[in-house]
Structure formats: structure tokens, C-alpha cells
Specification:
The model has no long low-confidence stretch (mean pLDDT 97). The chain is of the alpha/beta class. The chain has an eight-stranded parallel sheet. It is built from eleven helices and eight strands. Bound molecules: zinc ion (ZN).
Length: 258
């Protein structure tokens, strides 16, 4: 199992990364994709991925951080891609839920990253909150890119899911699916995700699966099996079949030899 979304640049993990990785491997999680929230962090996580086996990384600028995207960012980002060979461009996208950056700042950073991903032949690692219609309209203008991209931490409705699937996107599922209160709509949508479009992620240290007992303080990539178990239960398939399918999807989308 590969965790396709870990926010590794967090003191909770960095204080003892080798312990984090060995604990993760003990639960059958053999690797992770470290996701970037801005260009500075892209460099930090790239350095970590060079030091440890089973770590891959993205390069990009999260919509919350879009205010840090300047006229120089595109060239810097392109240089990072050439030098570091990330597995995806992101997190990138639109988040009109909190608007930590203004919608126009988010659009500028997102559109520049779409151009870079197209040019460098990288999948987009997409983040979207309360911006579904604009996200769909934007991706429709880039159908080839959309087809090989990922909507990470999908938490939406069946109708939203169907629109993402129609564009060819892969769907990242987090521990949100283990939340019987907030996750009911997502739980109902899970059976409709084709097996060859599913990806599993923790988004650690956030989004702790609520099915873990006793309840830990923070999420960790070692808890990915809780997400997998819940998805397998909802899809009514064997856990091994789910693990094999998501491994193949991860290898295909991120061009990782697994
Ligand atoms: Zn995100």
C-alpha cells in the first residue's frame, strides 16, 4: 500500500522520520507521496525523498498559499521540476471555503501550474473545496491533462464524483470516509468509483480516521489500512483486491515503478 498524500513537513514527523517510516512499514504501508504546499516546501520534501527509500514528492503551490505565487514563481517551479523530477504538480487547485488567498490569486497560481503540468507532462494533484463548478469548467478546457490527474481528498457528493469521473480523473480517498457524521455522502458515493480510479491517502497529520481505537492525537501514514478497510467494506470487495488495484493505479498515475 502506498499513501498518496502525506504532509511530511511537520514537526510531528520530522523529529524522528526514520521511526515514522518504520512504523508505517509495519502496518503494510510501503511508501508515501509527500505533498507540497508551496515552492519552499517543495524543496524541503525533495531533500527528504532523496534521503529515504519509498518517499516520492510533488512540486506545487496549494490554493491556500497562492498569495505567495509571484511573477517569478513559474520559472522557479519549472526549474524545480527539471531538477527534482517530482511525481505530480501540486497540491494545486481552488479552495473557496476559507479563501486564505483570494479567488483571483488562486486562479493565477492554478492556471500557471496547469500550463507547467501540461508542458512537463506531469499529472495535477488537485485540491478543491467549495469550488467544484469552476474546477470542472477549468479542467474541461484541459481534457488530456485531466485524464491523467488526481482529485485528492475527495469528500463530495455522488453528482460531483460523476463529473470528476467523466473527465477521467482518479479519486483520492482519505479517512474522511471513516467519519459516520461528516462522511455519509462520501460513503454513499464510494461504490460508484471504478476500482481502476481509486487511490488511498491519509492526508496525515490531518483527517484522523474516526474508526481508530483508542483515538490517537494525530494521523500518521501507518493508519492507511483503516482507510483501505472502510473503502473495501463500502465497495464490498476483498481487501487484497483493493490493495492490488490501488497499487497499480498509483504506479500508473505517478509513473512510479511499484
Ligand atoms: Zn488538499
Amino acid at each position: 500500500m502506498i499513501d498518496i498524500g502525506v504532509n511530511i513537513n511537520h514537526s510531528f514527523f520530522l523529529n524522528d522520520l526514520s521511526v515514522v517510516l518504520s512504523e508505517m512499514k509495519e502496518t503494510g504501508v510501503t511508501g508515501m507521496i509527500c505533498i507540497a504546499s508551496d515552492l519552499e516546501e517543495s524543496q524541503t520534501i525533495h531533500a527528504l525523498s532523496q534521503q529515504h527509500l519509498g518517499l516520492w514528492h510533488t512540486v506545487g503551490c496549494h490554493p491556500h498559499q497562492a498569495k505567495t505565487w509571484t511573477n517569478d514563481s513559474k520559472a522557479l517551479c519549472e526549474a524545480l521540476i527539471q531538477a527534482q523530477r517530482p511525481v505530480a504538480m501540486g497540491e494545486t487547485g481552488l479552495d473557496f471555503n476559507r479563501n486564505y488567498s483570494t479567488p483571483n490569486e488562486q486562479r493565477a497560481a492554478f492556471h500557471a501550474q496547469i500550463e507547467l503540468a501540461t508542458q512537463c507532462q506531469l499529472p495535477l494533484y488537485l485540491h478543491e473545496r467549495d469550488a467544484h463548478q469552476e474546477m470542472i469548467a477549468t479542467l474541461k478546457q484541459h481534457p488530456d491533462l485531466a485524464q491523467k490527474s488526481v482529485i485528492h481528498c475527495f469528500t463530495g457528493s455522488r453528482a460531483e464524483l460523476d463529473e470528476y469521473l467523466a473527465l477521467g480523473l482518479c479519486i483520492g480517498i482519505t479517512g474522511w470516509v471513516c467519519d459516520e457524521r461528516r462522511g455519509a455522502e462520501l460513503q454513499a458515493a464510494i461504490p460508484h468509483i471504478p476500482l481502476d480510479r481509486l487511490l488511498l491517502e491519509t492526508d496525515a497529520p490531518y483527517l484522523l480516521p474516526r474508526t481508530i481505537r483508542p483515538r490517537p492525537k494525530k494521523n500518521h501514514p501507518k493508519y492507511l489500512p483503516y482507510v483501505a478497510e472502510e473503502v473495501a467494506r463500502l465497495k464490498n470487495i476483498d481487501m487484497r483486491a483493493l490493495i492490488e488495484a490501488t497499487r497499480a493505479n498509483t504506479a500508473r498515475v505517478f509513473q512510479i515503478p511499484l
